[in-house]
Every structure is written in structure tokens, then in C-alpha cells.
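hiii, so i know i said id send this last week but things got crazy w the move. better late than never?? heres the sequnce for the chain we talked about at the cafe, plus the structure i predicted for it. fair warning i was half asleep when i ran it
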Amino acid sequence: MKSLPLFIGAAALLLASCGNRSYQVAYNTETVQKGEITTSVTATGTVEPVTSVTVGTQVSGLISHIYVDYNDVVKKGQVIAELDRTTLSNTLTSAQRNLASARSDYEYQKKNYERMSDLHDKQWISDDEYESARLSYEKALNTYESSKLQVSTAQTNLGYATITSPIDGVVLSREVEEGQTVASSMTTPTLFTIAQDLTDMRVIADVDEADIGGVVKGQRVTFTVDAYPNDSFEGTVTQVRQEATTSSNVVTYEVVISAPNPDLKLKPGLTASVTIYTLELNNTLCVSAKALRWEPKQTTIGEGDVIEDAPGAKHKLWSKEGNTFKAWPVEVGASNGVTTQILSGVSEGFVAINEAVVNQGNTTQEETTDSNPFMPGPRNNNKKSGSK
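okay and structure toks below
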């Protein structure tokens, strides 16, 4: 978390007395000036390709040929593997023969139905004979249509025996070997995983529920990976996912971060330590939060000092001119807890008090106690008897 570098110096010294003892109060000041205010949240995530596709098979069979290996660059439509075609070809041949038979029966039943329809119109045949011919024609038609679908399915399955790459990319994994049998059931078996473009990666970061409220799309991100501890990578928040994940009673949300990778240093699966900058204000008027909290107290003023307060002001800065402490009402903006943005009320170069340091003899006491340093201290045992 960055904060504004502030110029702090000692202001005028106030000499106060109480009895026979003297006290000095030094006022530390700072100059209101332009700087930057940032806040950030940290998280861990995993580097992965923006687009990756798992390639499987929709038919069962024996892997007869594999044409690619790990890290191979492939093009869309390129043949990457083939299944044994024997069973699939036999299935197609059988379906084609069934289709030919169904076509012949359909054509015969169609002509017979047309002939019986003419005879029925002339009332040369009974209604039963006509209905029988019509029923046989409809059955033949349905069988013929079903046979055509079976041939189409067999041809499609035979096409599935040739496995091609669905995208341009790089082979990340190969799950099978030549001669291995794959069985397609309810779950399509995975043969290959192909990443589309390794120069365009992303990080999926798990952000804690306490921090997710400040994370929005477009924020700047920096992250590091253990593989390159001296390198810092940059990205941008591209998505804040709404689904929560609970693990060991810890609730997190996934944040998607772009991760340009032109030199291919980032590899899929690397663990990233992420910093998301939820607030970034540059060249803005700033003052420390400490100065906004300070106000003169009885313990830090001397006799004769005058306080010109600003009643009703929610935020104010204090200055001291001579014996007068003056409050300056200000309007504040964003803050990171250390530095606060000043929107109005004072100008750049304004000198504000941020601390009072009380010097009691050889002891220096910051303004951190409610006790009054001007009250008499313990009796001095070395004082001569009878002295006043």
C-alpha cells in the first residue's frame, strides 16, 4: 500500500511553566501537497490459458494412429488421431444394405397402394383390401426413412474415427497411446487438451469475501510467480464472478485477470501471488490521516494561547500563528488509512500540525496520554530542606 511522502518538520516551541518546573512543546507539521493514494488487496490464483479445449471421441474403438505430441502446434481441422475403422465401416455397410432393401420394398408398396387406390375409387375392391394396401405402404415408408437415418448415423460415426483439432493452438496434454481402447459412454473420454493461444493467458484469483467489495472490472493488477521471483507481471481485472466458493469456512470469489504473455514465460498451472489495486489516485492533493485527527488539547497549549475552532466542521486541519491555533474546515475524499485526499478547504503548500511532542526535562513524551504534563511531578528528594 503506497502513501504520500510528507515533509514533516518541527514548528515553533512553546515554553510553559507550572510551579518551579518548565516544559517545552514541539509541534510537528507537514505540508499539504500533491501525491498519490493507493489501496490494494492481495490474493493467490492460478495461471491458465484464456481458451482451452478438451478433445474427446464420440465413438468407442481402438486408437490406431496418433499424429501429435505434447507442445505440438496444431491448426484447426488438422488430423491429430485416428480410431480403427473396421467395426464402424462394417456398421455402415450393413446400414446401406438395409437401406437398399427398404427402398425396394417402399417402391413396390407405393406402386401397389396407388393401384389399389384407383381400383377402390372405381369400387372394384373392398375397403379392407384398400386399407391393407395403405397400411403396407406406410410401414414401408417408415422403414425406408428409418434406414436412411441409420446410414447417416453410421457415416457420421465413421467420420468420428478421424479426430481433428477444433482450434488453432498448442497441445498441452495427450491422454492416450496408440493401441489403447477408448470407450464412449455417458462421459466422453478425453484424448487431448489444446490451448488456443499461450501468448494470451489469464489468472483465476480467489479473493476473500472481506475484500471482494472493492474489486471491480478494469482495475490494475500486478502478480508474481515462483518460477520468476524477480519478475513482476501486469494485468487487468476482466471479470468478478458472482459464485461463492466455501472451503474450511472461508468464503472466496473468483476474479479473472488478464495476463499478457508475449515472451511465453507464464505456463499453465503456475501459482500467482496477486495484488489488485482497488484505488489509484495520482497527482491529487493529500494530507496524512494523522493531521486530520489532531486537535489542540489542554495538555498541548500554554497560557495565553487562543483557539479559533470551526464548530460543526466534520473534518479540519489546524495551524498555529503566534499564540493562535486556527481550525480550517476541509472536505476530504478517498483514503487508504494513512493518507487522505483533500478536495477543498486548503491549498497546496498549507502547513498543518499533525503532532505535539512534550519535553519534560530529559523526557520526551508524545501526545498519547490523557495525563497533563504541566501538573507538578514527584517531589525532588535532592532539594535542600527549607528551600521554597
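btw The helical segments are 86-121, 127-160, 289-293. thought thatd interest u
miss u guys!!
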